[in-house]
Amino acid sequence: MLLSKSKLFILLFGFLFVVGIQAQAQRDIYSDSTSLKDRLYFGGNFGMQFGTVTLVDFSPLVGVMITPRYSAGVGLTYQYFNDKRYYGGQASSYGGRLFNRFNVLPNVFLHGEYEAINFDNYNLVSDRFERIWSNALFLGGGYFAPFGGGRGGANFTFLYNVLYDNKRSPYSEPYVIRLGFVM
Hints:
There is one protein chain. The protein has helices at 2-21, 36-39, and strands spanning 40-49, 53-65, 70-83, 90-103, 108-123, 128-146, 153-161, 175-182. By secondary structure, the protein is mainly beta. The protein has one domain: Porin (Beta Barrel).
C-alpha cells in the first residue's frame, strides 16, 4: 500500500511540475515599489463532513511575498471531530503553524512548515485520552493554480512530516495532501 501511495505522489507531482512550466506567475512584486499591503495574501483551508462522523476544519493563514519567489507566513488551525459510533467520541484540536514557500517555477513551489497541534491523544499506559501538543515539520511542494487574472488561486500541496510519531500525532500517516485557497 505504501508503494502505491509513493507512486501516486510521484506521478501527481510530476504532472503538476510539467503543467507548472506553462503557467503564469502567482503575482508580480517589485521590492522598491510594492507596499506591504500589496504583498500580503490571505487564505487557508476549510473542510466539512457530516453524518455518523462529523469533521469541521477551519485553518486560515496570512502570508507575505518577501521576494518575487519567496514568501512566508503564519496560520491557525481548529478542528472539531465527532464520531457518533462511540460514546465520548467528540473532540476538538487547535494550534498554529509557520511556513516558508519558494517558487522554483512560476506556479510550482517548495514548502516547509512547522506546526504545533493540541489534541486528545489516547495513552495506552493510562488507558485514557490526554491532551497533548504534537509538533510536525512538513517538507514538500505543490502547485498554485491561479483563478482568472487576479491574485487568487488554489494551492495543491503534498507534504511529508519528518518528525512523524504514530503514537503522538493527530495524523494517521506522515503524508499530508492539502487543497487550499488564497486571495
